[in-house]
Amino acid sequence: xxxxxxxxxxxxxxxxxxxxxxxxxxxxxxxxxxxxxxxxxxxxxxxxxxxxxxxxxxxxxxxxxxxxxxxxxxxxxxxxxxxxxxxxxxxxxxxxxxxxxxxxxxxxxxxxxxxxxxxxxxxxxxxxxxxxxxxxxxxxxxxxxxxxxxxxxxxxxxxxxxxxxxxxxx
Length: 170
Fold this sequence. Notes:
The protein is an all-alpha fold and 170 residues long. The chain has one domain. It has 7 helices and no strands. The longest helix is centred in the middle third of the chain and has 29 residues, at 53-81. It is globular, with a radius of gyration of 21 Å. The termini are far apart.
């Protein structure tokens, strides 16, 4: 009678976790989609865009809840695991845009946390925090699109637009 022998895998748990962490640093579609979703739901809350209060209230709830869930689950792990690439990269454009994204994302995150915890109470400081959150988001998205251009989830969109502008309608 043969005995069943469990074979030990070649990789340990720490190796598997290390590989998983490294895989998060590359072309993370969930993180990119999350940032775009938070941007769209947030920009619609801008007081320059007029929408009915019932819709705005729902958008605020969606923006806050999605930010509290998506940012720590999808964006933060990618952001932290991506640091090693920033240090090792030889591509100046990616290094510069990556560092700018770091600072801008930090400002957007900090102001967002303040707005969730304290809200904009209508005073000068609340207005400044609101403006920091808005301006960092407005700067972050085009910078993110440029930084991730080669691998972006939006690449099919501008590839399609470029093919239409070149007269190639196939």
